[in-house]
Amino acid sequence: MSKLSSFSALQPGVKLAEQVADALEAEIKARRLEADEKLPSEATLVQQFAVSRTVIREAISRLKSRKVVYARQGAGVFVAAQSIEPLDFSGSSPAASREAVLQIVEVRRALEAEVAELAAQRRTPDDMQAIDEALTAIAVAVAQGQDGAEEDVRFHRAVARASHNPYMIRTLEYLSRLLQDATRVTRANEARRADFAKAVNREHLQIVEAIREAQPAAARKAATQHMKNAAHRIEQADPAFWAEDGARLASPLLRDTL
Fold first, then answer.
1. Residue ranges making up the domain that contains 236
2. Both 74 and 105 in a single domain?
3. DSSP per residue over the chain, as a string?
4. What's the rounded Cα separation, in Å, for the pair 254 and 258?
5. What CATH number does residue 66 fall under?
6. Cβ 182 vs Cβ 219: under 8 Å
7. What are the per-10-residue average pLDDT scores of the chain (258 residues)?
């Protein structure tokens, strides 16, 4: 059964797809649809809005371009996390970029340790399936020559959802823009070295297995160590990385004041 509100009749003279896109975006911003939640089926949306499938598809395309939703191949269309503007770390030099990423990793260390521990206590079979699928998606992205940053964020979000603490989940959603931008930097750095990439994969597996085996202390320890190692890998990044990809990818963290 759809969680969406009852919608008013669409207005003549305004493009239908735009009205449908705006209505769905309003539902998402009102949190009647949560991050990573699947949108109602195309047939359901056709019935609710009383429009054609073509209109619904165009509306979804508009939402994708606005980064309000994203598609998972073979699974459907899902709600993207809402975001905030990035913080101002007063500068755009490689040193400032490095410091910004390290500070975000410090924030992540506290949050990721807590959600991993809670996930080990509360995860359901459906949660484990989502976590396993997210972990597989990282491996697929890397095998295709990508850095796996988006998939990495979704993996950690799947762990957070397994905590079944809505306030923790919404805190992470609130910080999603910062976390995503920082993750792009860490993944780009890790992709430059095979030993880094293997270590990240091993650390993810340790977190997952602790959650699967319902070992909260081990899950917390694994998540904490994963973030400490992420910081260490950033500290080890060579100057060429910051001169090339690092500073560019970190620039959103340095751009605007919250």
1. 94-254
2. no
3. ---PPPPPPPPTTS-HHHHHHHHHHHHHHTTSS-TTPBPPPHHHHHHHHT--HHHHHHHHHHHHHTTSEEEETTTEEEEPPP--PPP--S--SHHHHHHHHHHHHHHHHHHHHHHHHHHHHH--HHHHHHHHHHHHHHHHHHHTT---HHHHHHHHHHHHHTT--HHHHHHHHHTHHHHHHHHHHHHHHHHT-HHHHHHHHHHHHHHHHHHHTT-HHHHHHHHHHHHHHHHHHHHH--HHHIIIIIHHHHGGGGT---
4. 10
5. 1.10.10.10
6. no
7. 54 71 83 82 90 91 87 85 51 68 88 96 96 93 85 91 91 79 85 87 96 97 94 86 75 57
Structure confidence by residue, pLDDT tens digits, 146-172: 888 888 988 999 999 999 998 888 888
Q: Looking at the structure, tell me whether residues 106 and 183 fall in a common domain.
A: yes
Our count of domains for the chain comes to: 2
Can you give the pTM of this predicted structure?
0.64
Q: Are residues 112 and 72 in the same domain?
A: no
Both 100 and 221 in one domain: the answer is: yes
Q: Give the domain CATH number at 104.
A: 1.20.120.530
Decide if 107 is inside a domain: yes
